[in-house]
Design a protein that fits this description.
Blueprint lengths: L4 H6 L1 H4 L7 H5 L11 H12 L4 E6 L2 E5 H11 L4 E6 L2 E9 L3 H10 L4 E6 L3 H6 L8 E7 L18 E7 L2 E8 L4 E7 L10 H11 L3 E5 L9 H6 L4 E4 L6 H12 L12 H17 L11 E2 L7 E2 L1 H7 L13 H5 L5 H12 L5 H16 L1 H11 L5 H9 L5 H21 L5 H10 L6 H10 L20 H28 L5 E5 L3 E7 L11 E5 L3 E5 L1 H34 L1 H27 L5 E3 L4 E6 L2 H6 L8 E4 L6 E5 L6 H16 L8 E5 L3 E5 L12 H15 L5 E5 L7 H19 L2 E5 L15 E11 L2 E10 L7 H8 L3 H16 L2 H11 L18 H8 L7 H15 L3
Parallel strand pairs: 1-5, 7-10, 9-12, 10-11, 13-23, 18-22, 21-25, 21-26, 23-24, 24-25
Antiparallel strand pairs: 1-2, 2-4, 3-4, 5-6, 7-8, 8-9, 14-15, 15-17, 16-17, 19-20, 19-22, 26-27
């Protein structure tokens, strides 16, 4: 880690707050005694002081206004006009604002840029407040704090991925990571193995968990920012971190919070949780309660993911294998996009969860495969189910919004339509099927989907629905006779106003006379300045503007009161009816959530069945052996991008007696594709999917590692080679006998002899110490000499064919070793100038004439095998003259001529004396 790493991590406490830390300085300190300010600004400052690290959306009529430093930061982030409103402490007050009706779009942009936003609403109607004779500004209060991990609005979320809020906790040397998605109710915790008692969690384990969840926000005790062992992993996620005081992670308070959440006297009935797990889970609930101002979403039961329940895939391997995203950072090019045939957002989220967390329980894997196979065999049933799924709204997220009091009429309609679709799905499934299908069918046909709730919501809701309940007009006619009467009275009054406008226009002779309405004046009569003198008694002047004049009358005032009473009464009754419907939905919340999960499960299984049928995938055999036998395997992403039948399939058999393959061959021949496809087949098999192969048998893989591709990390001062070595070190330190290891071109980023030596030692370590299944691709053909000494190391090569001076890449893997890399041919294909290609061929012929490979092959025969005692071996053998000469070489400092002379000297050392 760079020397300034602690400082980098330490800055995270203000990183996501932009310039909010100094907001109090710019808005003024708490008002001193005798300090003068307007009542409204005094209210604003009081609220702002309670949320110094947030932008404050301060509701004023139809706008959310921001002032002082908040206004400056928001105006810059949103590219909106910065203006001013009055003065404070002898300075102009910067101000900007966004319309309430468009606030969601602005919130989305602010959240993406790392801001937190406190939404301060008017808690009373201004007109009613004035009628009561209230003094000062209307009552306002913060109703929620919007953070990246606490979003529920559709416009702020990706429908096809979860939005996790995570919490990392440490209690007495034990570590845990909890995560919840308040938009779906998913809630889980997992222990993290520590390196040693009181030490940090193993970086690979924590890295894998973060990569799997991709949390939008991570809570952690602020003291952990100073832990050196966490600098690197937290640095990767620094923009997502929300440090909190250590007191917020008290495990006993967390236990009480969880018991309160689930209404139990003990957590024993939910499972066995350690103190760190309880601390992480309870802190999440506290944080959600704080940001949602006491309104908790409906959360599922807390589930515990124990060690060894899933295939661990660290962050580097997920990235190298492009599981969720391609190297561009987008879904395009990733495995997820290639296999995703889900129709609903909930199904897509479930599929993603399966993909990044493949199972290690063979019974659970078999249950998923049974269901996929059953649906794959019955295309008619599968097609009917998918047509119904296409009409299924996102029940999970609609239920979450209604539970938080943030839902609207459209969310009620989503519950209605989702439950109706669930009934049709249950009818189409019937009673037969594998265990997972039967379980899904039982939930789909539960009481939550009975006709009573569906019929009531159907009768209650109008055909056209507003986004917000406050807009009214969403209750259908004939549902409530009382509401129908009020609406008729309101609409008749509006007709009376229209008639009054026509009469006033005729009496005054001003055809352009209009009766208008706004929130400040209510109803008023408006004419142009040219006709203002024509409005005398009974008209009463109210306001003069640049181009118009406004009036009222006693008759208009009385009519306005009548309209207002009817309109207000109608809206109040609609809101009451809305709350009654929401209450009925909440009362069945657990059952509705179970229905939503069943829909997601069915969509995921049907999507995998569709994939298997469409792409000719087969059911793999997954067992507890150490087998890894793939017959005619294919790369699921590359195959999808090629014309049908164009992909060249290959076998791979990592049986115990040849569990480690050494693969040589030229660039562009398909080595990396072959490596990746076998890793992806293992993942697909253990997530419960069928796989792209003619046949497959896979013994459970507990950890998968992939070191493929080249990338640097300049922000940390890491070269491409350093990144390669860091990832290789993680593999060699964490892999075990059940791991699957994929390594491509280890050692290529440094000098030839250094790289060759590292690759050599890595192969020996994998073979002798870890003893795992693995694929090792390399351009160092000299390493093939190791196959004679390492019994489980099997040489394989990418086949090529030379024809009429050209090289044809066959993309086939065959047993044996490649004799050369054809790098100059690839350079020619890339467009290097002919003179450069010709000169390269001359140099290659000269180098090969000195037979470096032959010398190294003889060296391999004499070099002692890798010893478990290294590097602590006390008595290393004395270096030979040749070894001493090799060690003294400094290839990076040598000219081409000096390098050739050194090769001649090394050759001479090999000659018999």
């Amino acid at each position: 880690m760079a020397p300034d790493a602690p400082r980098v991590i330490g800055r995270v406490t203000v990183l996501n707050r932009k310039a909010m830390a100094d907001s109090n300085d710019k808005t003024g300190s708490p008002l001193a005694e005798g300090e003068r300010t307007t009542p409204m600004m005094a209210q604003y400052l009081e609220v702002k002081r309670a949320y110094p690290d947030c932008l404050l959306f301060y509701r004023m009529g139809d706008f959310y206004e921001m002032f002082f430093a908040d206004a400056e930061a928001a105006a810059k982030a949103l590219d909106i006009t910065l203006t001013k409103r009055g003065r404070h402490l002898d300075q102009d007050i910067p101000m900007c604002g966004v319309p309430v009706h468009a606030a969601e779009a602005y919130l989305s942009r602010l959240i993406r840029q790392g801001f937190r936003v406190a939404v301060c609403e008017q808690m009373e109607d201004p007109v009613e407040a004035r009628k009561r004779g209230a003094k000062g500004p209307v009552k306002r209060d913060v109703i929620r704090v919007v953070t990246p991990g606490t979003l529920t609005e559709d416009g702020l979320l990706d429908a096809r991925r979860n939005n996790y809020l995570a919490c990392l906790a440490e209690v007495s040397g034990s570590w845990a990571l909890a995560a919840l998605d308040i938009s779906t109710g998913a809630f889980a915790v997992e222990p993290l193995a520590a390196i040693g008692e009181g030490d940090e969690p193993a970086s690979g384990t924590l890295s894998a968990a973060f990569a799997r969840l991709e949390p939008s926000e991570i809570l952690l005790p602020d003291r952990l920012l100073a832990r050196p062992g966490l600098f690197e992993i937290l640095g990767d996620w620094k923009e997502k971190l929300t440090p909190l005081p250590g007191s917020r992670f008290d495990s006993e308070n967390a236990r009480r919070r969880l018991m309160q959440l689930y209404g139990v006297a003990t957590l024993d009935g939910l499972g066995s949780f350690g103190r760190a797990e309880i601390a992480a889970s309870g802190t999440l609930i506290d944080y959600v309660d704080l940001t949602q101002k006491g309104r908790l979403p409906r959360l599922g039961l807390l589930t515990r993911r124990g060690a060894g329940q899933i295939m661990e895939i660290d962050a580097a391997s997920q990235r190298n294998l492009e599981l969720v995203r391609g190297f561009s950072g987008e879904r395009k090019g990733g495995l997820l996009q290639a296999i995703d045939r889900t129709i609903t957002g909930a199904g897509a989220r479930t599929l993603t969860g399966w993909l990044v967390a493949p199972l290690t329980d063979i019974d659970a894997i078999a249950a998923r495969q049974d269901a996929v196979g059953w649906l794959a065999e019955d295309g008619g049933r599968r097609g009917a189910l998918r047509r119904i799924l296409a009409e299924s709204p996102d029940l999970e997220r609609a239920l979450a919004r209604l539970s938080l009091g943030r839902g609207g009429p459209r969310d009620l309609a989503a519950i209605r339509d989702g439950l109706a679709a669930a009934r049709r799905l249950a009818e189409r499934l019937g009673d037969a099927g594998p265990s997972l299908i039967e379980q899904a069918g039982a939930h789909l046909a539960s009481d939550a989907a009975d006709s009573g709730l569906i019929d009531r919501v159907t009768r209650a809701l109008a055909s056209e629905l507003p986004l917000f309940a406050r807009d009214g007009g969403f209750i259908a006619r004939a549902y409530s006779p009382q509401l129908d009467e009020l609406i008729e009275l309101r609409d008749d009054s509006r007709k009376l106003i229209a008639n009054l406008q026509a009469r006033y226009a005729a009496e005054t002779g001003v055809s352009g006379l209009k009766i208008r309405h706004n929130a400040v004046l209510g109803y008023f009569i408006e004419v142009t300045q040219t006709h203002a003198d024509k409005l005398r008694q009974p008209f009463i002047h109210r306001q003069t503007l640049a181009g118009s004049a406004r009036f009222t009358s006693v008759e208009l005032g009385e009519l306005e009161a009548k309209v207002a009473r009817a309109g207000d009464s109608a809206l109040a009754l609609e809101l009451k009816l809305f709350e009654e419907l929401v209450g009925e939905v909440r009362a069945r919340g657990d059952a509705i959530q179970a229905v939503a999960q069943a829909v997601a499960l069915l969509d995921t299984l049907a999507g995998l069945a569709e994939l298997a049928s469409e792409r000719d995938y087969v059911r793999p055999q997954v067992d507890m052996s150490l087998a890894f036998a793939i017959t005619r395997g294919r790369h699921p992403v590359v195959e999808a991008a090629l014309p049908a039948g164009a992909f060249v399939a290959n076998d791979c058999d990592l049986a115990p007696d040849n569990r480690l393959w050494l693969i040589t061959g030229p660039n562009m021949a398909g080595k990396s594709t072959f490596l990746r496809q076998n890793a992806l087949i293992a993942i697909l098999a253990q997530m419960g999917s069928f796989v792209p192969a003619a046949a497959a048998r896979i013994g459970i893989v507990d950890r998968l590692f992939s070191r493929v591709g080249a990338a640097d990390d300049l922000a940390r001062g890491r070269s491409t080679f350093m990144v390669e070595m860091v990832e290789t070190a993680a593999i060699l330190n964490q892999a075990g006998p059940r791991a699957l290891v994929i390594l491509d071109e280890i050692g290529r980023g440094t000098a030839t002899f250094d790289g060759l030596s590292i690759a050599w030692a890595t192969i020996e370590h994998l073979h002798e110490q870890i003893r795992c299944r693995g694929l090792f691709a390399t351009h160092y053909h000299e390493l093939n000499a190791l196959t004679a000494r390492l019994p489980a190391l099997s040489p394989h090569a990418m086949r090529v064919k030379e024809w009429q001076g050209d090289v044809v890449f066959l993309h086939e893997v065959a047993r044996g070793a490649a004799d050369r890399s054809y790098g100059i041919h690839v350079a020619k294909l890339a467009g290097l100038p002919a003179s450069v290609v010709a000169r390269a061929e001359e140099v290659l012929e000269l180098v090969q004439s000195n037979d470096r490979r032959s010398a190294l092959t003889r060296l391999a025969a004499d070099l002692p095998l890798f010893s478990a005692a290294r590097p602590g071996a006390a008595a290393a053998p004395a270096a030979s003259e040749l070894e001493q000469a090799l060690a003294a070489l400094k290839p990076d400092e040598m000219s081409p001529r000096a390098a050739l002379e050194a090769l001649y000297r090394l050759r001479d050392l090999l000659k018999p004396r």
